[in-house]
């Protein structure tokens, strides 16, 4: 279950190089001390996780021992995000045991250390918990989040919907009754995961072609350096594009749209069945929906976009289970190089030296 994530500063410009990677994996008894310290710290900072301040460390340890016993019984999933031996975040998935709800799980005890906030760690952790739910056949996730803090905005960015608010739901750790908001999300666990043959060398080759187009956008047109390439199911490049918003006076002229238009003309078809789109920056909501409508099989992007990314970073437009077409997504291919190019473009605009 362990996977690598890249945490991106929330204040970064689109495509800014990610921070150091964190490792997400299942919690173990050896993690109890770190988990307990994070729980105590969260409660002391008035985090609504079911406890009152001051929370004795022994009580926190007892909670985590019980949680890991529930993991052993198959009733719960507990994941941790680590970096350089430090616990950055944790989250739990309570697998509902009611016979009438074998499809449901609850997100609970999602906590991020103060030093790790705003770096994308929490979002990656929740997405890992969602994948754990899918693997266990749970397709409906529910949770409650306090209205006093910014938690509901965080979950909305990850595709969760509001069911309603309950006033005076629970006391805050530092005192005073607070309202809570109930949220939910349907996962697409009903269909088996679809896979396509992946050639890492080919992915890098086509991404470098997209990077060359991004460089052309910057140097020839002074456009934001984003490039895109469409490759047919047979391995032929059928579309290329780069940002042309300024040159064409066209708000829709993103690199992906330009490449899709060229590919459609090459195939004399508005459907690009089996094609892969390579783009240097994670697609926005407009481009993500265009990929769905075009029936593209796969999108491979370089740098994540922490402001408008619609392939999982901010929105998950492309992965919404209500679509009648599924587009496979892979991010981070030459992401550091793509992010650095974007960062330096914006730094140059502000008169700052490149990084």
Automatic annotation (TrEMBL):
The keyword DNA-binding does not apply. PROSITE patterns: CYT_DCMP_DEAMINASES_1, CYT_DCMP_DEAMINASES_2, GNAT. Residues 1-22 have a biased composition (Low complexity). Its cofactor is Zn(2+). Zn(2+) binds at residues 254, 284, 287. It catalyses: adenosine(34) in tRNA + H2O + H(+) = inosine(34) in tRNA + NH4(+). Pfam families: Acetyltransf_1 (PF00583), dCMP_cyt_deam_1 (PF00383). Its EC number is 3.5.4.33. Residues 1-24 are annotated as: Disordered. GO terms for biological process: tRNA wobble adenosine to inosine editing. One of its GO terms (molecular function) is tRNA-specific adenosine-34 deaminase activity. The keyword tRNA processing applies. Residues 201-328 form the CMP/dCMP-type deaminase domain. The active site is at residue 256. Binds 1 zinc ion per subunit. Residues 22-188 form the N-acetyltransferase domain. It comes from the Bacteria. Catalyzes the deamination of adenosine to inosine at the wobble position 34 of tRNA(Arg2). This is tRNA-specific adenosine deaminase. It comes from Pseudoxanthomonas taiwanensis J19. The lineage of its organism: Bacteria, Pseudomonadati, Pseudomonadota, Gammaproteobacteria, Lysobacterales.
